Amino acid sequence: MQQTAQEFQLKGLFVVTGGTRGIGRSIATQFSRAGAHVIANFLRNEAAAGSLASVAQRKGLSLEILRADVTTPDGLSRIEARVKELNLPLRGVVHCAATGVHRTIDKMSGRHLEWTFALNVRALFDLVLRLLPQFERHASILAISSLGASRAVPYYTAVGASKGALEALIKHFAAELAPRGIRANVLTPGAVATEAWKDIPDADARLAEAAARSPIGRLVTVEELALCAQFLCSPAASGINGQTLVVDGGGAMLA
Question: Using one digit for the tens of pLDDT, what is the confidence trace for 213-226?
Answer without folding.
Answer: 777 777 788 999 99
